[in-house]
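Assemble and predict.
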Amino acid sequence: MILSFDLLINAIISGVLIGGFYAAVTCGVSISFGILDIVNIAHPAFVILGSYIAYIINAQFGFDPILVSIVVVPAFYALGAGIYQIYYVAFERRGQESLRGLAFFFGLLFITEVSLVLYFGVDYRYVQAPYIGPTWHFGFIDVPMRILVPCVVSLLLIAFLQLVLTRTFIGRAIMAVAQDQLALRLMAVDPIRIKRIAFGISIATASLAGAFLIIIQPVEPSVGRDYIGRIFAICVLGGMGSLPGAVIAAMLIGVVESITSTFYGPSWAPAVSFGFLLLTLAVRPAGLLGR
Amino acid sequence: MRTLPFFLISLVVGAAVFGAAVGIGNEYAFFAGYVVLQYIVLSTAWNILGGYCGYVNFGTAAFFAMGAYSTVAIYKFIADHDLYRMPMPVLVLIGGAVSAVVGFGMGYLTLRLRGAFFAIATLALAVVLQTLVVNWDYVGGSRGAYIIRPETFPLIGSYIRYLFLIMLLLAIAALTIARLIERSRLGFGFATIRDDELAAEASGVPTLRLKLIATTISGALMGMAGAPYPYYIGYLQPDSTFGLDYAVNSIAMPLIGGTTSWLGPLIGAVLLGSLQQLATVTISSAVNLLIVGCLLVAFVIIAPNGIIGLVHKYIQRKDDDFIGRRHVGLDAPAAPPEPAPSATADNPP
């Protein structure tokens, strides 16, 4: 009995830590899907792209993956802003975002993934960093550093984003775009520019999330598919566009998945988050901290 | 054209296709043709919900796999109990029924929500069903299941010809159903949902009921397309059966062909399906997904109404030239002059 208690505590702790990482992957979608209403289904593909960039530079020069990912944030921001510009011109302005916009992002997902497959093959890639090996032990509790570090950095990232969104002018304008574009225009703010910035930020977070992912586990191009449903589940469960909600939901799903895979076997774990999502959609579509 | 003549003509065309495939004299024609026909059924089925109602379904693979796995389950059951083998048309009907039930259930859970949520829920559904199948040992679990394909079928020859024929009939049935829907009250109801769901509801269109009909029909057709698949492939494995490849193909084909008419998915599936068969044989199977992705993105940006839209535009321009309205300026652009970007940006509150 004491053994299973140990297992339970460890499962909960690793679930919370993994949840911190899930939150990093989700916060981009919380901005694009939750605030801007852009169903960026290709977000996981950009996360994988981030993983591969961290991998290349780490393998070539031995730099820390998280540091690399912070350095390439501007490039991801530019990529995001560029994609939004295409999306806006091709779909949003014509009012066709629902069907064709979704298909557009779905196509982007495949293009990114298959390009990575063709270039790098389907071998699993991993990075080297001093904190990847060791594990802290407190009594019977094990805290692997390779999950703890991404979790901490991820929480810092989300706290920073939350501060930007609530305290700065641009951040408040981003929140306002979700509510009333007309009113925003009357304040002499161009909503398209604000949306471009916001989408750029959302893709920029994928760079960091990618580095976290490749620190936590080896990565191959189609790993991203596992995250599509999970991040949308977290985003919806947390309440669309609410970053604190996303963190809580991410940890909740992390814990439930971790307990499921500890006690029932890892093959059942994927069903948990999706089951959660279907349940949330059916029962409380507004999510935990919905607006 | 009425439905019956259309059905008869497509039967004749189908017979010609079968004859041509026999004429090629190589069994591979049937293997390749089967896949193209399967995509005709899948993309037509997708289009009934996606093109007519405007609801994007990412879960094609889930419905397809439900059909395939119901066949596997029946196969195992029959093998265990030493029963008489069930004829393929019955398996197809059972597969269709299973997927129809799944489609109805999913629609009931999610269709009260906005469009994007439905799309995400279908993705989620695919993973939940995949997890169930992976953990269901009776149908092979993650190891997969072997199905032994009989060598021959009486009167027709090799079994693959028989499967080809069944898929051909299914494709004809799917196209006939899609065309029938398009021209009926049901189709007009679907179109109102696609154009403005709120307005449709306000004017008394029973939107929820119509959407449930659409998901059920669409799911049933996808399941029917999946039912013969285990016999075609011989070894069924969850990862590939639930793969996103089916989803991206069944979305890309109607969008490339044109979503507003039954002809669009047919054109898209024949073009893209043959192209992929060619690319798989000559280059590699990873490249053919890249082709699909690039074509999908290019078409949704450049030609939003697909090939059919391009053709329509071309014909219209020719007519205009012929009548000579251009010179009088009567075909002045119907669209208002484009205002500054910021002014068109938002939808009215």
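Residues 328-349 of chain B have pLDDT under 50 and may be disordered.
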